[in-house]
Model the fold of this input.
Amino acid sequence: MSIVSTTTVTVPATTANLGPGFDCIGAALTLYNQFRFTRLEATPDVLTLSDEAEVVRISVTGTEAKLVDTSANNLAYQAFLQLYQHLGQTPPPVHIEIELGVPLARGLGSSATAIVGGLVGANQLAGEPLDQIEVMKLAIAIEGHPDNVVPALLGGCRLAASGEAVLKEWEICDIPWHSEIVPVIAIPDFELSTKEARRVLPTEISRADAIFNIAHFGLLIRGLETGRGDWLRTALQDKLHQPYRQALIPGYDAVNSAALKAGAYGLVISGAGPTLIALVDTVQAADVAMAMAEAWKTQGILAQARSLSIDPLGARTV
Done:
């Protein structure tokens, strides 16, 4: 077991749900947060101090750096502690440097990057006692559901299904994503909390709506694999969460209409929102990105729109 003094973890943003795949499917995107973990000198004076600043030091850079908690309550550090607790070891004093590239509270898995970054960083500093699957299980336990943390850790597009409830096992399936399907994201300049987005969801649904989503989710998987735009146009429809969350996103209808008119196969809410993601062919991607940004602008909302790709690697370390 090799103990290192510093490690850098790069973690991709994620988009979850993809329309009918509520809480079970997610994909890693080529947008990143970076976490650098450096052991602080563990002198006797440091180890006996109760002041958290001597146990963890956190610095953040990026456009939303001021919004990140730099106390011991920081999510990446809390995940860092959880791994050492799982190992039954005392965590070392650490300096965490965070470089933000994923917007906060926008439905792009920023919290998942922190959880995965903290766990992977701790595992590296501890000498990699846990394998990737063990780290994944810890990440799911912290996050509460797998749709963001699994692709953030493993990369690609992933479907997660719970196995034996008593054992809390998970079956993870790689979903092929056709190279001609481009995810175009539009990120508005306002936030939407996951808690609020979940509050508006119904506690029960009809059998008809359940059947609708099962059929559309199956078609989504085939559409992603084959690149069939006609299948994706139908498959991206949903009756579990999007109809209820759309009202929380000002300008949704305008952006949706603009994306479809510009050639998108369909548009969905990324995670809990408010970021919207359109699936497009490579030829129409630039036009769709421009149309989405312009549509939000007509509603008095600034938005960044860009074409991305699916990140195949997930979290990686240096």
